[in-house]
């Protein structure tokens, strides 16, 4: 099979706005999301779920257009063959067991019984719920309900997986297994679009992040790239060396250095600079002057810092 | 052993008096209810008929106006027990529709959201809860039934003179007692349905259905079984029978015996109370 | 493509069926549907018991029918007893006016009818004959109960319960999005849900109507014609079809479908009093036109209101059936347009 053309491998938002009456959902969002794991990060009410609902046609944009791999959400027959969505709603059709839930909704695809059964068991196996498959969902724990929702979203083998807070309620072991599953799915070339408020997990799993605040996209891209583009905040760099005090005296030769702090263990120096490029060039000279430098690493190119810098004092959450 | 600092201190301020604690519930219920524009409009519509009656009473005593219209006062509908009986039946219908709108939202949201334990872990009893929720309906329904009814009665009394009030004081009693019977029945049905059917829409349909279906089934039962007692299932008919007796109308007790009507209403109220107390409790049996 | 739509519709019906037939929430629909069955069963039992009792009494104490007919008002108690013998059914005595007037009722039966002779101070004043119920009477009563209770109230409220639940119930339960996230046209989803509701409603209400018809003819040797039976069952099914579409649409268009339901109830109840042209804009007009026996509720209605009743020629069978299908189709088309634009915003429900 030939790979799809580039246009068809992106999830695109073109100048999308959505208002709920007079309340802003998202405003002027333009995005092109490539395959891999993409995390939507932002405080409560920033528009993460709205973006996901727009992607899946559960709500329509007030302005602009959304296309998922070239398909519009107005065309559910094509769209939902490509997309699986695990929503934030912790509700299920009444009276169904885990297996019946996945099987019954697979039958809506118009597929034969055998195929639906096979796909249901495969999805249930991927979230490790085989033993509980014939129990009623009403008796499941929060974590099991989260996993059965995930199984339902992946059961039809979608190319785009949209997951609203999929790690909520999972214990550490299952959380690790689920993250591994996301990686596996992303490695197969799928889009895995996740919203989460656990920032260190976002850091661990994401290929790219989209930061949202008050309905606007405030940043998007790979974390490291994002950090280097934020000029307002000095970048933090940790230098491990044998003489941190001597190093501290030298770094102030540059006027772009804002702060230099000895590391608590005495074996390093934490430097804040407004111009990382000039600082790295200076470091080459210092190394030649007899200070043994073991390692140089950015100390704040993670989601947490980016979030902190861009969204600041807003409450991190959903 | 863990030792914790004892920093928590319970509330030690003044408490709302026990007898008036149930009035806290309607305060919040009204706030929520009047957010609905439809409800406000409907409530306003409930005053159209009393306003019309007031105008009619005024005009029927305004001789110069009647002279302009060339109408004899005797030709107009007489302001008597029958006039107030008709007033009560019209307002009772509005009260019924208002109950179907307001009633379903009284208990069911607390049950759906598992809020009852929050009420009952405070110094608040089940009876106070029921009284508090019921008072929402009692206030609203009183506002459109006996209160304007009494105002109309007083208006007629002031216009017709002292002799009229001495001869007809029992009409005021009939307006108040008849309306309170109807309000009591409607409130209890609404509360019971709201407690048993968590889905508000179904509860509303049941409130409508209990009266309509009860009436229809009662008549069907009379026809099929060749009896008269089926009419007792028609709670509206029962109430109208009691009103007819209270308003001393000639046809009182024609379809159903007044005592049978009283018994039917009392039985319906007891069943509703039983249903209510079965459901309103600080725990829920999860199956 | 059509095969795929059928498969998808069947899948929706399968999912909905259990919910519609077996949910605890829907138990009251069964109660509503089968209450008339209990009523007719009670009637049959009481009628058969009375009939047996009368025949047994008449056999033990025979009273000639001619003698019973010869009794005239003005006769004394003793004269009546001389002609008919001691009363063979329970009789009673009542005193009025502080015991001054003595009323006495003597009851006899010839095995079929019950005769009650009312005496005041020993003189015959009233003769009341309660004849044995006939199939013709019960047929008319059934027609009245069917049209004024079963169609207007039982099926009406049953359809409110079943059909508004299909979309609005799922919106309230926050589970509709699972359907909207499947690769299925919203029109197919709507058709599937409507079909599921219709199957349930038709099964419940036609089963009840069939049982009522069976119980109606059980105590008699005669029974309704096949045409009449099929007409009643057909009307019950068409009522589900018509009301079902209306309430499915109400569940889609209104956050609180109770308001339109109350509106429709008032409109349908007022149908008797509406002018001829307006009568035709209602489901009940077409349903009543299809009923094999004309039932009149006029005896039950207040004489003042009875003056307001307007009579209209019933619609022909073809027109009535076509009219109901047309109304259903139009309502479903509007509902499907609404379903296409439906968004999930559970917070608002």
Task: Please tell me about this protein's structure.
The complex is a heterotrimer of chains A (318), B (287) and C (349). Chain A has helices spanning 48-55, 76-82, 98-107, 113-126, 142-154, 172-187, 199-205, 223-229, 244-251, 276-288, 303-311; strands at residues 11-20, 23-33, 36-41, 63-68, 83-86, 160-164, 191-195, 208-213, 216-221, 235-241, 257-262, 268-273, 293-298. Chain A is of the alpha/beta class. In chain A, the strands form three sheets. Chain A has a six-stranded mixed sheet, sandwiched between helices. Chain B has helices spanning 24-33, 37-45, 48-60, 63-69, 81-102, 104-112, 116-120, 126-144, 146-160, 162-196, 200-225, 235-246, 258-279. Chain B is mainly α. Chain B has one domain (37-279). Chain B starts with 23 loop residues before the first helix and ends in an 8-residue tail after the last helix. Chain C folds into two domains: 2-47 and 134-348, no CATH class; 53-130, Beta-lactamase Inhibitory Protein, Chain:B, domain 1 (2-Layer Sandwich), CATH 3.30.1450. Chain C has helices at residues 2-22, 27-60, 65-69, 77-84, 135-172, 177-180, 186-217, 226-253, 258-269, 276-279, 283-290, 303-306, 317-341; strands spanning 89-96, 101-109, 114-120, 123-130. In chain C, strands 1-2-3-4 form a four-stranded antiparallel sheet. Chain C starts with a helix and ends in an 8-residue tail after the last helix. Classes of the chains: A alpha/beta (318), B mainly alpha (287), C alpha+beta (349).
Q: What keyword list fits this structure?
A:
A: 318 residues; alpha/beta; Rossmann fold; Alpha-Beta Plaits; 2 domains; 6-stranded mixed β-sheet; 4-stranded antiparallel β-sheet; 26% strand; elongated; B: 287 residues; mainly alpha; 71% helix
């Amino acid at each position: 099979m030939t790979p799809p053309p580039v246009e068809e491998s992106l999830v695109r938002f073109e100048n999308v706005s959505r208002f709920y009456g007079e309340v802003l959902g998202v405003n002027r969002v333009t995005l092109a999301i490539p395959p891999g794991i993409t995390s939507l990060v932002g405080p409560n009410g920033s528009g993460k779920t709205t973006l996901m609902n727009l992607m899946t046609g559960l709500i329509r944009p007030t302005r602009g257009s959304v296309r998922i791999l070239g398909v519009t959400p107005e065309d559910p027959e094509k769209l939902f063959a490509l997309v699986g969505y695990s929503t934030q709603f912790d509700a299920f059709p009444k009276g169904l067991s885990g297996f019946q839930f996945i099987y019954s909704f697979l039958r809506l695809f118009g597929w034969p019984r055998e195929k639906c059964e096979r796909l249901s068991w495969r999805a249930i196996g991927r979230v490790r719920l085989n033993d509980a498959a014939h129990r009623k969902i009403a008796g499941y724990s929060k974590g099991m309900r989260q996993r059965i929702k995930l199984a339902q979203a992946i059961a039809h083998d979608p190319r785009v997986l949209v997951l609203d807070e999929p790690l909520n309620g999972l214990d550490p072991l299952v959380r690790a297994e689920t993250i591994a599953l996301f990686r596996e799915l992303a490695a197969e070339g799928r889009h895995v679009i996740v919203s989460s408020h656990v920032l260190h997990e976002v850091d661990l799993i994401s290929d790219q992040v989209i930061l949202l605040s008050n309905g606007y996209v405030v940043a998007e891209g790979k974390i490291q790239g994002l950090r280097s583009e934020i000029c307002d905040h000095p970048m933090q760099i940790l230098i491990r060396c044998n003489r941190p005090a001597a190093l501290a005296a030298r770094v102030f030769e540059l006027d772009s250095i804002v702060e230099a702090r000895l590391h608590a263990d005495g074996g390093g120096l934490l430097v804040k600079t407004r111009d990382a490029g000039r600082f790295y060039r200076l470091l080459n000279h210092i190394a030649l002057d007899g200070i043994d430098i073991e390692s140089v690493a950015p100390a704040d190119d993670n989601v947490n810092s980016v979030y902190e810098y861009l969204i600041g004092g807003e409450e991190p959450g959903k | 052993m863990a030792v914790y600092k004892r920093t928590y201190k319970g509330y030690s301020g003044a408490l709302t008096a026990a007898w008036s604690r149930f009035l806290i519930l309607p305060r919040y219920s009204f706030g929520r209810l009047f957010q609905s524009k439809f409800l406000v409009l409907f409530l306003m519509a409930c005053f159209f008929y009393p306003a019309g009656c007031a105008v009619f009473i005024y005009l029927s005593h305004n001789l110069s106006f009647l002279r302009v219209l060339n109408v004899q006062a005797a030709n107009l509908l007489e302001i008597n027990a029958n006039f107030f009986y008709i007033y009560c039946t019209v307002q009772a219908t509005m009260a019924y529709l208002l109950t179907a709108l307001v009633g379903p939202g009284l208990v069911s949201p607390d049950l759906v959201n598992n809020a009852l334990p929050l009420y009952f872990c405070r110094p608040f009893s089940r009876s106070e809860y029921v009284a508090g929720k019921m008072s929402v309906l009692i206030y609203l329904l009183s506002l459109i039934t006996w209160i304007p009814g009494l105002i109309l009665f007083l208006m007629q009394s002031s216009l017709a003179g002292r002799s009229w009030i001495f001869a007809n004081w029992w009409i005021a009693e009939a307006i108040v007692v008849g309306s309170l019977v109807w309000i009591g029945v409607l409130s209890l049905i609404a509360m019971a349905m709201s407690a048993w059917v968590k889905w508000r829409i179904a509860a509303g349909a049941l409130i409508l259905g209990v009266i309509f279906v009860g009436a229809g089934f009662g008549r069907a039962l009379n026809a099929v079984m060749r009896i008269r007692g089926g009419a007792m299932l028609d709670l509206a008919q029962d109430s109208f029978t009691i009103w007819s007796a209270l308003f001393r109308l000639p046809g009182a007790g024609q379809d159903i015996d007044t005592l049978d009507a009283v018994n039917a209403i009392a039985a319906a109220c007891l069943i509703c109370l039983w249903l209510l107390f079965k459901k309103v409790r600080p725990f829920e049996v999860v199956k | 493509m059509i095969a795929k739509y059928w498969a998808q519709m069947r899948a929706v019906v399968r999912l909905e069926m259990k919910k519609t037939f077996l949910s605890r929430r829907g138990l009251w629909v069964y109660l509503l549907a089968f209450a008339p069955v209990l009523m007719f069963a009670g009637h049959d039992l009481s009628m058969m018991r009375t009939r047996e009792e009368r025949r047994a009494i008449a056999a033990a104490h025979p009273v000639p029918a001619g003698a019973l007919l010869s009794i005239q008002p003005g006769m004394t108690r003793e004269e009546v007893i001389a002609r008919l013998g001691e009363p063979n059914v329970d009789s009673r005595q009542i005193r009025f006016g502080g015991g001054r007037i003595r009323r006495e009722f003597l009851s006899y039966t010839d095995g079929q009818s019950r005769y009650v002779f009312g005496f005041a101070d020993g003189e015959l004043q009233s003769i009341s004959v309660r004849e044995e119920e006939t199939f013709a009477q019960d047929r008319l009563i059934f027609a009245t109960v069917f049209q004024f209770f079963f169609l207007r109230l039982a099926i009406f409220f049953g359809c409110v319960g079943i059909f508004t639940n299909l979309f609005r119930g799922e919106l309230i339960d926050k589970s509709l999005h699972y359907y909207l996230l499947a690769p299925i046209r919203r029109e197919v989803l709507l058709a599937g849900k409507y079909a599921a509701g219709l199957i349930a409603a038709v099964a419940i209400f036609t089963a009840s109507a069939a049982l009522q018809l069976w119980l109606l003819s059980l105590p008699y040797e005669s029974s309704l014609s096949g045409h009449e039976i099929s007409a009643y069952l057909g009307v019950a099914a068409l009522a589900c079809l018509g009301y079902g579409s209306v309430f499915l649409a109400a569940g889609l268009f209104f956050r609180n479908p109770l308001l339109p339901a109350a509106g429709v109830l008032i409109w349908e109840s007022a149908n008797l009093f509406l002018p001829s042209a307006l009568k035709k804009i209602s489901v009940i007009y077409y349903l009543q036109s299809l009923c094999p026996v004309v039932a009149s509720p006029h005896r039950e209605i207040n004489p003042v209101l009875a003056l307001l009743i307007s009579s209209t020629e019933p619609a022909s069978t073809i027109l009535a059936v076509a009219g109901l299908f047309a109304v259903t189709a139009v309502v479903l088309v509007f509902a499907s347009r609404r379903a296409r634009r439906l968004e999930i915003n559970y917070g608002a429900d």
